[in-house]
Amino acid sequence: MKDELEKLVVDLTAALSSVHDTAALEVVRVEYVGRKGRLAELMKGLAALSVDEKKVIGQIANSVKARVEAEFARVEKMIADADVKARMTREWLDVTLPGAAPSVGHLHLVSQAIEDITDIFRRLGFVRARHPEIDGDYYAFEALNMPKDHPARDEWETFFIRDSHSAEVMQGQKGKMVLTPHTSNGQVREMEKGVLPIRMISIGKCYRRQSTARHSPMFHQFEGLVIDKKSSVTELKGVCEYFAKSYFGADRTTRLRPYHFRFTEPSFELDISCGICKGVGSVGGVKCKLCKEGWLELGGAGMVHPNVIKAGGLDPDVYAGFAFGWGVERTMMMRAGVNIDDIRILYRNDLRFIRQF
Ligand code: DAH
Predict the structure, then answer these.
(1) Is there an atom of ligand 1 within 6 Å of 182 CB?
(2) Are residues 50 and 159 in the same domain?
(3) How far apart are CA 353 and CA 338, in angstroms?
(4) Boundaries of domain holding 45
(5) For all residues of the chain together, what is the average pLDDT?
(6) Domain total for the chain?
(7) Would you say residue 276 has pLDDT above 90?
(8) How far is the CA of 275 from the centre of ligand 1 (A)?
(9) Average pLDDT in the 313-327 region?
(10) Cβ partners under 8 Å of residue 36, min gap 6
(11) Are residues 116 and 83 in the same domain?
(12) Nearest CA to ligand 1 atom 8
């Protein structure tokens, strides 16, 4: 029996020498030390021995068990070490390598301008508002003191919405439905809300039947409206100056040039001094290439016409105000460093262009 115990250790060592993973190890474990394994079978033989023999063999059996356990422990550790080594090779990572930068986009040039403009007027207390892009022509024209068939309306080359079945121009509660040709439709709508005083900056899309280097069929305007018990051209001029200096630079100035709009009285065009010739009209004796006589045209402005205040449900003897409406794209294109000679490129979705800004 002693020999058989010794042989068990020798056989076990031989069997374990070809074991390299846990599954194979378990097979050997069952064969040698399982409930019906070789060791258990040998131990059954103890019962037939005399008391003295039991003592001797028992001792040998205990030392054999200890050696068997040590053998299993040794191989277990060998397998675990090999696993760790394999994982280290597999998952090796150089944390000092530069990372792969995720590609991050940015806002479109026009969206950036809208944010900048909103921000400047917010500092003066103007609150951003939104008004419909598809509206009745009452708000786009009539309420702005432009009666039906008034020739001034021709300047606003308007898109009308047609019913897809009848092909007739759609009639809404407030007249024919149009794609708003300017953001001025927001003036009377804002007054109708009845919250006074008003300091509104409404920025939105406008649509006109035109497509040239200076005109895109869809473009944006920002409409300012101030309505209060007291209001003056001086305030309008102050707002224009503040905007021009904040947006274009401290060295720029503005002028109000008399003009005509049906919805303002008096009316003006706002010009800003040219960034190239600084308002002089020439550089080193040569006529400035960018501007007309030192000034660039920004857009319309004026004191709100009493009829418009009336249309807004307010008493023109109590309330007065000023308004202005300028193109976002045109304003942005006039900023130093933006060198765009055709407005339509903004909407061609050419990433080579868009990524430059
Ligand atoms: N709505 C005018 C346009 O699109 C611009 C304009 C002129 C807006 C004078 C105003 C204003 O608010 O007072 O040409």
Answers:
(1) yes
(2) no
(3) 12
(4) 2-90
(5) 93
(6) 2
(7) no
(8) 24
(9) 98
(10) none
(11) no
(12) 325
Domain with residue 212: its CATH number is: 3.30.930.10
275 Cβ below 6 A of ligand 1:
no
Q: Are 180 and 74 found together in one domain?
A: no
- pLDDT, position 338: 80
Instruction: Give the count of beta carbons closer than 10 Å to the beta carbon of residue 121.
Output: 21
Residue with tokens 């024209």: 141
Q: Is residue 122 located within the same domain as residue 270?
A: yes
Q: Residue with the nearest Cα to atom 7 of ligand 1?
A: 300
* pTM assigned to the model: 0.73
State residue 90's pLDDT score. Answer: 93
321 lines ligand 1 (CB under 6 A): no
- Identify whether 97 is part of a domain: no
Mark whether 126 and 164 lie in a shared domain: yes
Instruction: Classify residue 98: in a domain, yes or no.
Output: no
Cα–ligand 1 centroid distance for 55 (angstroms)? 114
pLDDT at 290 over 80: no
Listed ranges 22-26, 103-107, 117-121; the one with the highest mean pLDDT: 117-121
CB-based contact 54:46 (threshold 8 Å): yes
- Nearest alpha carbon to residue 203 among 113, 268, 267: 113
69 and 136 together in one domain? no
> Rounded CA gap, 275 and 297, in Å?
12
Q: What is the pLDDT of residues 237-258, one digit of tens each?
A: 999 999 999 999 999 999 999 9
